[in-house]
Amino acid sequence: MKKKFIVAITGASGSIYGFHLVSALMKYPVEVFVLMSESGRAVAAHETDYLSGPIDSYFRKNNEIFHSQATLTEVDSSDFFAPVASGSFQHNGMVIAPCSMNTLAAISNGITDNLIHRAADVCLKEKRPLILLPRETPLSLVHLKNMTRAAKAGATIMPPSPGFYTRPETINDLVNSIVARVLDHLDIDHALSPRWPQA
Ligand SMILES: Cc1cc2nc3c(=O)[nH]c(=O)nc-3n(C[C@H](O)[C@H](O)[C@H](O)COP(=O)(O)O)c2cc1C
Questions:
Q1: Could you read off the pLDDT of 22-33 as tens digits, one per residue?
Q2: What is 4-185's CATH number, 3.30.70.920, 3.30.70.890, 3.90.1200.10, 3.40.50.1950?
Q3: Ligand 1 geometric centre to CA of 96 (Å)
């Protein structure tokens, strides 16, 4: 059975984290289900090469080469009939990268008015891995409390704040250092970013 992962890209700054994560996962024989919120599409179009429309056009434009057995399925974030909406859909983890404060608030309060919120809610109730990359600065007490609630309910809170001890030289180095931590948490063996201590 191929491993299945859900990646959601919401309207916080840092869509590049979601895109790099999808492309890192697609180097393995896995099934990846991608959801973008409406704001996620707008922000991604503003800060990356993504042009609104199907996400695979972004990867084609960047000449990404994927594993021959990997599959990428884009799911409409308003389609509650999609498999990821159901607890009976078995998968190996969901990552929201980046995770807006709006989406964080919905998840930490059990509000499921789009499929991203619903799929995350299902992860919590089914005890499946849910990794959130929340992005905002500074953080208000509301944001901090929502992170605490989500963490208490079982989510992993992984702010995309890269370390500099590996001496990153490019934006890709910085982004990959975070994507590497996500892959670690999804139990995927990789050599995406140097580990500490360095050889
Ligand atoms: C250019 C731009 C950058 C944004 N950056 C952030 C951000 O870093 N964090 C955040 O929580 N919201 C940010 N927002 C606001 C969210 O897009 C907005 O709250 C939206 O309702 C989130 O919806 P979603 O959770 O469905 O994606 C940004 C909006 C724009 C237009």
A1: 999 999 999 999
A2: 3.40.50.1950
A3: 13
